[in-house]
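User: Can you recover a sequence for this backbone? Please restate the input before giving your answer.

Assistant: Of course. Working from this structure:
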């Protein structure tokens, strides 16, 4: 079995963050481990509070795992401060790890999870270490400073982000109208990764789940584009079988291959 590490924030609701990552790793046949960068108090209606971990415990979590266990891929999610970004970069720089970076900036409820002053540091420190970076449209606009309203502009954004250091860029098109089309760019070729638009509001944790699925498939030996294609199929299924939980934006169903709805377990 391949081992995959998530470095991200904790979601007390369980639909995003390290909880979503660990569920995804398990669902896709890999062994998941976690480094917690922050604790959030949140439910399906939004984020109430965020409390960061200190740099020493973040560093110790990463280093003790690499000292003991073979880690085949790393997913990085919520890293809100310059200090934590620098700590993660210092810990991973000499590890030769396959890294997938989901540049989490704002929650669906509008809570800023990446401090504005940290964006430049995220690009400078972590992009050069990253195999795949997976910004959504809003994140791609912040990174590039350009408005994105169509596929051509997504391609232009992917090219700009690639020049910032990431080897492969997947700009996610879930916030556009029509089919959910992502743009893949590896510095040479553009490819469109297509998915159907699913009529549901239960999309909490989709970005976390998608990037974690890419990391799991890379750990299992897939080529980068194949890993992205498989991850797209997985997240489409998780959204299609999403769970009616709470009174806000419900979570996707990470284990839909095993049961389609929570009621099936009764």
């Amino acid at each position: 079995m391949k081992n995959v590490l998530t470095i991200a924030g904790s979601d007390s609701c369980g639909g995003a963050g390290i909880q979503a990552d660990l569920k995804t790793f398990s669902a896709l046949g890999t062994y998941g481990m976690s480094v917690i960068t922050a604790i959030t108090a949140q439910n399906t209606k939004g984020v109430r509070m965020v409390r960061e971990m200190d740099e020493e415990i973040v560093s110790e979590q990463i280093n003790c795992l690499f000292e003991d266990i073979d880690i085949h891929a790393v997913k990085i999610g919520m890293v809100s401060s310059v200090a934590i970004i620098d700590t993660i970069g210092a810990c991973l720089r000499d590890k030769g790890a396959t890294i997938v970076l989901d540049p989490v900036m704002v929650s669906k409820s509008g809570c800023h999870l990446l401090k504005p002053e940290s964006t430049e540091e995220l690009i400078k420190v972590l992009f050069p270490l990253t195999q795949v970076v997976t910004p959504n449209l809003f994140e791609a606009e912040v990174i590039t400073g350009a408005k994105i309203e169509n596929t051509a502009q997504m391609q232009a954004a992917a090219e700009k982000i690639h020049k910032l250091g990431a080897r492969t860029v997947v700009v996610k098109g879930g916030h556009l109208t029509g089919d959910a089309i992502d743009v893949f760019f590896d510095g040479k070729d553009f490819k469109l990764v297509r998915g159907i638009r699913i009529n549901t509001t239960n999309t909490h944790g989709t970005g976390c789940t998608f990037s974690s699925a890419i990391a799991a498939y890379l750990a299992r030996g897939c080529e980068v584009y194949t890993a992205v294609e498989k991850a797209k199929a997985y997240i489409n299924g998780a959204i299609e079988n999403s769970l009616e939980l709470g009174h806000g934006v419900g979570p996707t169903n990470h284990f839909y291959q095993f049961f389609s709805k929570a009621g099936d377990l009764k």
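That completes the design. The beta strands are 3-11, 31-43, 46-52, 73-76, 99-101, 132-133, 168-171, 180-185, 190-195.
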